[in-house]
Write a structure and sequence with these properties.
Among the domains are: 168 residues, FAD/NAD(P)-binding domain, CATH 3.50.50.60; 94 residues, D-Amino Acid Oxidase, Chain A, domain 2; 86 residues. The protein starts with 6 loop residues before the first helix and ends with a helix. The protein has 519 residues and is α+β, with helices and mostly antiparallel strands. The strands form two sheets. Strands 3, 4, 5, 6, 11, 12, 13, 14, 15 and 16 form a ten-stranded mixed β-sheet that branches. Strands 1, 2, 7, 8, 9, 10, 17 and 18 form an eight-stranded mixed β-sheet that branches. It is built from 17 helices and 18 strands. The protein is globular.
Length: 519
């Protein structure tokens, strides 16, 4: 496989007068998925992202590829069925990034035990031949054995079921690499600052390179707005008075040490005070606690939402109710928040975003701007297929079938693998620093940093510690301690000016403090 194009070469392609078939604005899950789909069909595809790939909502998920057990309770059968099918496809196409994970739902009375057992049998039925394994009822002792650290007083039993777990930002980077392998041009730090129109039709965009300030004019036959929670901002470039489409909802997660819930099975609490479920999930040697659902309509312009005090207290309080050793604020290794781009129906209750659908929608403005809104990581491929199908119709592109149901993603190893780099692992092992950790408390090496800069479009220390590795999510204090070391490698690889280095380090320290509650 050929080496990825350099940033300079990619920018040079934008200066050519030749129009693109498809321009995608937004480098999160939906935009990157659309870039893979478009390029796989043979269209000349350009994706631009204002910040870094997956730097918003797409890096702050609960790290699950799942049908959504809680949606059964709301009767969203169709969404669950579609998600379960997509779960199976992703497990097959990216076995180095998505893995089966067992979940246990404890029950403290017989009625709940029977209800959970019946609900999970429906989940099995909806999955059909794509089911990972049959759910099963557990007695009290089996639940205690599966979830060391769970309070057992009054425990009746429970249910075990299976879903998928993944690393969200690593999957995003893999999608970017896959799109590039297929011929797409993908650039981060290149926001669209204005849309171009000809005869009242959207025909392109003005892009700005945030590293140099250069503005580039590009034209395209189809333009897709896949900017997640910022979709309304792009829509208002097209129509100044376009009414808001989205109701942002914030979800936060806390990362604590594995000793609070030892073992390799996840805990799902189906009833919490805010109407959501809560998960405690083993993830990369830690335990991930989440999530919340807090309406944040004022945050549509914010790129770095922060956990609210009441959200942190809620998760700690919920965990304390079920764990024998409840974590405290002092035990939190990392805390992060993301915004869900929920579609806002006209009669929605903005005080309860937990009731809004996670379904996606595709809209086309009178000028031809195509907006993909809503959705979730699990269904990114289906969303991409549908939005590219719509782009074909809107722009009268030559029709080509969608091949992504069986398309293997970059690094595909041929079988299930614990190495997220897949076939790139050999290349990684040959780089300097492959045996030198960034920090004793982090599972990441200097070679991973070099690889990310050379092959994965990493431009800043935050890119490296938040998205190419997951250091800031794993242990924010350890990540902060490694900033100077990472900066040294970045200087060797990218040769920024002293002033740029100072700015990059300053920004990285500010970011690390946002992940640290105990700084």
């Amino acid at each position: 496989m050929s080496a990825p194009a350099s940033r300079q070469d990619s920018l040079a392609a934008l200066r050519e007068p030749r129009p693109w078939d498809v321009l995608i604005i937004g480098g999160g899950a939906s935009g990157l998925g659309a870039a893979v789909d478009s390029a796989a069909r043979g269209y000349r595809t350009l994706l631009v992202e204002a910040h870094d790939f997956a730097s918003g909502t797409s890096m702050c998920s609960t790290k699950l590829i799942h049908g959504g057990v809680r949606y059964l309770r709301r009767g969203d059968i169709g969404m669950v069925r579609h998600a379960l099918r997509e779960r199976a496809l992703l497990l097959g196409n990216a076995p180095h990034l998505v893995h089966p994970l067992a979940f246990v739902i404890p029950a403290w009375n017989v009625v709940d035990h029977l209800m959970y057992t019946g609900g999970l049998k429906l989940y099995d039925l909806l999955a059909g031949r794509n089911n990972l394994d049959a759910s099963c009822s557990l007695n009290r002792q089996e639940v205690i054995a599966a979830l060391p650290g769970l309070k057992s007083t009054g425990l009746s039993g429970g249910v075990r079921y299976w879903d998928g777990q993944f690393d969200d930002a690593r999957l995003a980077i893999t999608l970017m690499r896959t799109a590039a392998d297929l011929g797409a041009t993908c650039l981060n730090y290149l926001p669209a600052i204005r849309l171009l129109k000809t005869n009242d039709r959207v025909t392109g965009a003005i892009l700005r390179d945030t590293e140099t300030g250069e503005e580039l004019e590009v034209t395209a036959r189809a333009i897709i707005n896949a900017t997640g929670v910022h979709a309304d901002s792009i829509r208002q470039f097209d129509e100044v008075k376009a009414p808001p489409l989205l109701t942002p909802s914030q979800g936060i997660h806390l990362v604590v040490d594995a000793e609070f819930l030892p073992g390799q099975q996840a805990l799902m609490i189906p009833k919490t005070e805010d109407g959501r479920v809560m998960f405690a999930i083993p993830w990369q040697g830690k335990v991930l606690l989440g999530t919340t659902d807090t309406p944040r309509p004022e945050l549509t312009q914010l790129n770095d939402p922060q956990p609210l005090e009441e959200e942190i207290d809620f998760l700690l309080r919920t965990a304390a109710a079920v764990l024998t050793r409840p974590p405290t604020r002092a035990d939190i290794r990392s805390a992060f928040a993301g915004l869900r781009p929920l579609i806002h129906p006209g009669n929605a209750d903005e005080k309860n975003t937990a009731t809004l659908s996670r379904e996606h929608a595709i809209m086309v403005s009178t000028s031809g701007l195509i907006t993909l809104a809503g959705g979730k990581w699990t269904t990114y491929r289906l969303m991409a297929e549908q939005v590219v199908d719509r782009a074909i119709d809107v722009a009268s592109l030559s029709r080509a079938p969608c091949p992504t149901q069986t398309l293997k993603l970059h690094g595909y190893p041929g079988e299930r693998s614990s190495d997220a780099y897949g076939t790139d692992g050999l290349q990684l092992a040959a780089l300097p620093g492959h045996d030198k950790l960034l920090h004793p408390d982090l599972p990441y090496t200097e070679a991973m940093v070099r690889f990310a800069i050379r092959n994965e479009a990493a431009r800043t220390i935050e890119d490296l510690l938040a998205r190419r590795t997951r250091a800031l999510f794993h242990d924010a204090a350890a990540a902060e301690a490694s900033i100077e070391q990472v900066a040294g490698i970045l200087v060797e690889e990218l040769h920024p000016s002293p002033a740029q280095v100072t700015s990059i380090i300053k920004t990285a320290r500010e970011t690390a403090r946002r992940f640290r509650l105990n700084a």
